[in-house]
Amino acid sequence: MTNNSSFEFFRAITRCPAASIVDGLRAKDTGAPDLKQMLADHAHYVATLKRTGAEVIELPLLEESLTACLSRTQRFACRRARY
Q: Structural domain boundaries of the chain?
């Protein structure tokens, strides 16, 4: 049985990378991440989401959390939900 349904997402939740992200753990040590590049990439990502018409909810920085801006497949869909 094949499910060919599609979903439209109208909202996205983002969190800008904090400076502490350069101190996070990595599977392979290739040096510290480039914070300036990460901030530019994040800004581009948010702008792209907004261009799709999505409402972008931008959470505040969490400097104490090294991985606070990373996604862990936190996607869900609610049919006809009103928030």
A: 9-23+31-77
Please tell me the pTM assigned to this model. 0.67
Go through 34-62 and write b for each residue having 16 or more CB atoms within 10 A of its CB, e for each that does not.
Answer: eeeebeeebeeebeebeeeeeeeeeeeee
| 62, 14 contact by CB (below 8 A) | no
Burial class (CB in 10 A: 0-12, 13-18, 19+), 18: buried
Q: What is the pLDDT along the chain (83 residues), one digit of tens a residue?
A: 556 556 677 888 888 888 887 777 677 888 878 889 988 998 998 999 899 888 999 888 877 766 666 655 445 444 554 44
End-to-end C-alpha distance for the chain, whole angstroms: 33
Q: Which of 17, 28, 27 is nearest to 61 (CA)?
A: 17
